[in-house]
Design goal:
The chain has helices spanning 5-19, 24-33, 69-88, 95-115, 121-149, 160-170, 176-183, 189-197, 220-234, 247-260, 301-311, 320-324; strands at 35-39, 49-51, 60-64, 263-267, 273-282, 288-295, 317-318. The protein is of the alpha/beta class. The strands form 2 sheets. The protein has a 4-stranded mixed sheet with strand order 4-5-6-7.
Length: 330
C-alpha cells in the first residue's frame, strides 16, 4: 500500500475527525503532539504499543510499519489509544475501555474509507475482519479458560474479545456524542453494557457475585451485619471519590440510615446483590421521595430503581428527575 507510517497516522486522524467533529480539536492535538516511533518489520515480531507517560508528558507510540493494510489498521488502533490518553490527562483508564477506544478508532477508519470510496477500503476491511477472527477465537477461548480455571495468570489479551464485541455493537447504533464519551474514557464499562442492551446487542449481564442467604427470624443481627458490609462494598466507585471516604465515616452513615430504615441492599431474583439505595422523604412536598444514593455496581440501575420503589411507603412518590439521573456504577 503506497502510504507511509506518518501518512497512515494522518489518515487515522482524518477518519476520527470526520466521525467525531466535536472532538476535532482534541484529535488534531493528539495527531500533532503525540510522539510516534516507526520501524519496518516483516511481521515476525514487535506488535505496536502506546505508552502513557503521565499528565505532564505526551504518550509515546511505537509501531512497526511495512506498508501493509494490516499496518494501517494497527496505526488506527494506536491512534485511538493516543486520543484517549490525551483526553484522560493522566487519569487511570481500565484496560477494557482502552481497547474499546482503539477499536472504535479502527471502525471510524473503515467508515471514513468507505465514505470516500478509497481504493484500499475493501482490503483494509478484510484485514480488520481477520483481526476480529483472532480476537474472537484464540483470545476468546483463552479468556473462557481463564474464567473457568480462576487461577490463571493475568493476560492483557483477555480484554480484547469483550472490548471488540462491545465496540462493534455500539458503533453506528448509538449517538456519536455517546460514542465519543466512550472513546475518551468518560463512561464506565457496565454503563457501556447498559447502552448496548438498548441496541439489542446483549440481553443480560451475568452476575458472578455469590447468593445472599435468606434471612432467618433468629438471625436478624447477622442479616444486619451483612447489609452493613455490602453497602460500602457496593458503593466503591473511585470516579466519584467514594473510595476515599474514611471507613469510619462511611460506616457511621450507613449505620444511621439502617437505624432510620432509609437504606436497603437490593437483592435480585437470583438472590444476588444488585446494589444498594438510600432515600429521603420530604414530608412538606406531598411526601415526595428522593433517592440521593443509588449504587448498582453491575450497572443494572433500572432493576435497582424498580425494587427501591417497593421499599418506600405506599403514599410516597419518587421524584421523577431523581430517578432518571445517571447513577454510580463500576
Amino acid at each position: 500500500m503506497p502510504l507511509s507510517a506518518r501518512g497512515a497516522w494522518a489518515l487515522a486522524g482524518q477518519a476520527l475527525s470526520a466521525f467525531f467533529p466535536r472532538g476535532q480539536d482534541l484529535i488534531n492535538c493528539a495527531k500533532e503532539a503525540i510522539e510516534t516511533e516507526s520501524y519496518e518489520s516483516d511481521g515476525g515480531s514487535g506488535a505496536p504499543y502506546t505508552i502513557d507517560r503521565g499528565r505532564d508528558d505526551s504518550a509515546h507510540v511505537v509501531q512497526s510499519f511495512a506498508g501493509s493494510v494490516a499496518d494501517v489498521v494497527a496505526v488506527a488502533h494506536e491512534f485511538g489509544h493516543a486520543v484517549q490518553l490525551r483526553a484522560a490527562q493522566g487519569l487511570f483508564i481500565p484496560p477494557i475501555l482502552r481497547e474499546m477506544a482503539a477499536f472504535i478508532s479502527e471502525l471510524a477508519l473503515l467508515d471514513y474509507l468507505k465514505s470516500i470510496d478509497h481504493a484500499c477500503a475493501h482490503a483494509i476491511a478484510d484485514a480488520h475482519l481477520r483481526d476480529t477472527a483472532i480476537y474472537m477465537s484464540s483470545d476468546f477461548d483463552a479468556l473462557m479458560r481463564a474464567i473457568e480455571c480462576g487461577t490463571t495468570e493475568y493476560n492483557y489479551r483477555w480484554n480484547y474479545p469483550p472490548a471488540r464485541a462491545l465496540a462493534s455493537v455500539l458503533f453506528g447504533n448509538v449517538p456519536r456524542d455517546a460514542l465519543w464519551r466512550i472513546l475518551i474514557g468518560k463512561v464506565t464499562f457496565p454503563h457501556c453494557i447498559n447502552i448496548s442492551q438498548n441496541t439489542g446487542g446483549f440481553e443480560t449481564v451475568k452476575k458472578h457475585l455469590p447468593e445472599v442467604p435468606k434471612a432467618k427470624d433468629d438471625c436478624l443481627a447477622l442479616g444486619a451485619y451483612r447489609s452493613l458490609g455490602m453497602m460500602p462494598l457496593r458503593g466503591i466507585e473511585s470516579w466519584q471519590g467514594a473510595s476515599y471516604i474514611p471507613v469510619g465515616e462511611c460506616h457511621e452513615t450507613f449505620l444511621r440510615r439502617m437505624r432510620e430504615r432509609t437504606a436497603r441492599v437490593v437483592i435480585g431474583d437470583e438472590r444476588k446483590p444488585v446494589g444498594h439505595t438510600a432515600w429521603d422523604i420530604d414530608e412538606t412536598a406531598s411526601k415526595t421521595g428522593r433517592l440521593p444514593r443509588q449504587s448498582a455496581p453491575l450497572g443494572d440501575h433500572f432493576e435497582l430503581q424498580r425494587r427501591a420503589r417497593s421499599y418506600l411507603p405506599e403514599d410516597v412518590s419518587v421524584h421523577a428527575r431523581c430517578a432518571r439521573q445517571e447513577q454510580a456504577a463500576w
